Each structure stands twice: as C-alpha cells, then as structure tokens.
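Propose amino acids for all 80 sites.
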C-alpha cells in the first residue's frame, strides 16, 4: 500500500515534466497567446486535431485536449 507521502512525491515528479497533452487554455497560450475561441475554430475547421480520451462509460471525455507535437507542426507550417 502506498503512503500519502509517496503519492505526493510521484505527483510532484509528474508535474515537473512538460505535459504532452494541453487543454484549451494551455494550447492557446502555447500558440503565442491566441484566444481559446481561435483554438476551437482551428479544431472545428480541421487545422488541429483534438485528442479524444475514452471514458469509462464508452463515451469520450468532454475535456478538449491537444497534442503539443501537433501544435509544434502547426507553428512550423505557419512559418513556411
């Protein structure tokens, strides 16, 4: 059985990593401070792909997540 302090240590180590999946706010900030609505538009028009995380009931979680690698690729396309 894990003690509470071990769990907190693991959580601190995980938070020190740079997350690969970003929520709308983080993705907007990562893209140079775009609005979350602009990021939603990029998803809606197919420019960005949302990462769908399956839930326990067979439906996808409602949270919108984006892959940092997709954001990097988008930035590179914008530079060209």
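Proposal:
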């Amino acid at each position: 059985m894990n003690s509470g302090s071990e769990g907190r240590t693991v959580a601190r180590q995980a938070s020190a990593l740079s997350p690969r999946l970003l929520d709308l706010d983080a993705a907007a900030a990562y893209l140079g401070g775009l609005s979350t609505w602009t990021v939603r538009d990029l998803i809606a028009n197919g420019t960005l792909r949302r990462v769908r995380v399956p839930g326990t009931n067979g439906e996808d979680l409602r949270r919108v997540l984006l892959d940092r690698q997709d954001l990097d690729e988008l930035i590179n396309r914008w530079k060209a």
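The chain has one domain: 19-79. Residues 26 and 46 are 19 Å apart (CA to CA).
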